[in-house]
Amino acid sequence: MKSLLHIALFALAMAAVPLVTDSGALLNFVMMALYASLLAQAWNLLGGFGGQFSFGHALFFGFGAYVQAIGQLQGGLNPWVALVLAGLTGAMVGVLVGALSFRYGLKGSYFALVTLAFAEVCRILALSVPFTGAGVGLMIPLRESAANLQFGSRAGYLYLMLVLVVVALLVTRWLQHSRFGAYLQAVRDNEDAARAIGVDPFRVKLGAIALSGGFMGLAGAFYVQVFQYIDPAIAFGSHTSVEALVAAIVGGIGTLWGPLLGAFALHLLADLTRNLFGEFPGINMVIYGSVLVLIVMFFPRGIAGIGQSVTRLWKGQDRG
Question: Does this model's pTM top 0.90?
Fold first, then answer.
């Protein structure tokens, strides 16, 4: 019950932000940090709990984004309906990729490269077909209303993303305490041993990639509604995949709060370096990258496990 209480307190704290400030910059920061949290949590469901590291999660993001855009522009769908379909499409694409990959025993670096290849193939295809807008992309017309999933301020989008993040947190907590989650972590730790006790690794990993793909699809749909534009480079580009896995790794993979902590910390670091060193081209990225390297080197369990990492470092110095 403690973790549920923490999730509730987090939700209340984030929901209170628009009530105590009308700063567009602060609301945008919180909204985008929550968006990055959803990406990281989606990756964590498969990479953290399932041990299946993906370099191509933009694949699911892109399908969700295009379903959201094409559903409205060419299918006449209400954006809320398209949002649900985007999540379902992301999950179905996850099942398809999982069926093709896990059926033939692909894992580790092979699985990572296969997901990257799928995303790149879809990016090239999206550049070639007319219904995606090809290289020009698709633009959603501005029709501001809650019914049309277009809000007059960042507060509306913040609340929408907060709901999605809280759902992802609840799913992550369920994985920590459910039988399916135990099966998934057993497969991550030792697939052969899990199979020996009656666990079907194929079905378990397929369920994990479906959950992961579904949340990535929802993130893609959210992106389209906020920025009202999508093109193949944004939809299937490597930036989204990198953002998802880096935030999860920095925060602490296989944990409840790690992806969220990593996403907020990285967004804060990026904004600080950009504002402080924006007049020196490239310096902000050097500092940003250096901090990431230091975190990975000295805190391998991420921000969520920083206490354990500090203790190990201290004990190592004592022995020295």
Answer: yes
